[in-house]
Hints:
Blueprint: E1 11-16, H1 36-47, E2 53-56, H2 72-81, E3 87-92, H3 99-113, E4 117-121, H4 127-131, H5 140-159, E5 163-166, E6 171-175, E7 192-195, H6 199-208, E8 211-214, H7 219-235, E9 241-247, E10 249-250, H8 254-266, H9 270-285, H10 299-303, E11 314-315, H11 317-330, E12 334-338, H12 342-368
Parallel strand pairs: 1-2, 1-12, 2-3, 3-4, 4-7, 7-8, 8-9, 9-12, 10-11
Antiparallel strand pairs: 5-6
Helix pairs in contact: 1-12, 2-3, 3-5, 5-6, 6-7, 11-12
Organism: Gordonia jacobaea
GO molecular function, one term: monooxygenase activity
Domain Luciferase-like: 12-333
Amino acid sequence: MSTEKIADEIKFAYWVPNVSGGLVTSDIEQRTGWDFEYNKRLAQTAENNGFEYALSQVRYEASYGAEFQHESTSFSLALLGATERLKLIAAIHPGLWHPAVLAKFGATADILSGGRFAINVVSGWFKDEFTHLGEPWLEHDERYRRSGEFLEVIRKIWTEDNVDYRGDFYRIHDFTLKPKPLNTPERPNPELFQGGNSTAARNNGGRYSDWYFSNGKDFDGVTEQLDDLRAVARAHNREVRFGLNGFIIARDTEAEARDTLREIVEKANKPAVEGFRSAVQQAGSSTGDKKGMWADSSFEDLVQYNDGFRTQLIGTPEQVAERIVAYKKLGVDLVLGGFLHFQEEIEYFGERVLPLVRELELADRSATV
């Protein structure tokens, strides 16, 4: 589980569109559905086109173009039942889940799916989702401290018996979970992903998670985060894998791809984007060093609400494949892709882009032998 060593092949995940509005806050046509039947077909298409993971989103309250949402853990379990190989990563919020309750759900989901369940711990950016439910809204770094404890506790419950834990946020007293998930030497617990960009997120990733998810970044941004993440992981005798968000626009010509991006931004739902900006601007800017998600995001960046355009996976299949492999050489282990028209574009990616990625990876391996 390393960001120090470059794997032979980069992995691919896609955003599950279990939230209405697609992956861009724009009035452009998006031939993407948020209903289960659409998502079931999409999951089956994805696992047959080279995607190993899918990440289900978590929203609890109608907001910013995402008026309707299916809950992430139950939706992930349903998709696991409709697929054979795809691994489902359910996004969850500490503060709205108790780690032991989620551990129980996760163990059952893992057994039912043959070891394909994972979680992404999201520390929270949407204040209203907490305050409207009567839950306390913690300061930024405190949210990440809570997430760190959450990650510690759930790993212990999944792998140990008679768990005792005394933290600032969680108290566990002689707790044993049975049955445990389908833990193996290769995967000692269901994989723990943790998202963020801030210094607090990097510290959590290095200390507690199996995977670190970053918002969209260019090469310099990825390198800067990886350097920090690796330093923290080494200090705790750990290795962590790195996942990068990117909105993928692969077309037969570069002009077509750039025109699509231009249309997405031109047709942006400005009130929704500005509402989202207002809600998230504190997430990075409230940190002491001003590092964090959305701390330096422009209006255009926020049209794809996880900065997916910044990764610049936009162009011909050859251009997109070359850029993916360039990220892999920096230490990116997984690309988390968003698309405008998910079903048809994941098929296009599997047919036109992924084979080129594998050819480039093979050429790199052959050159080093």
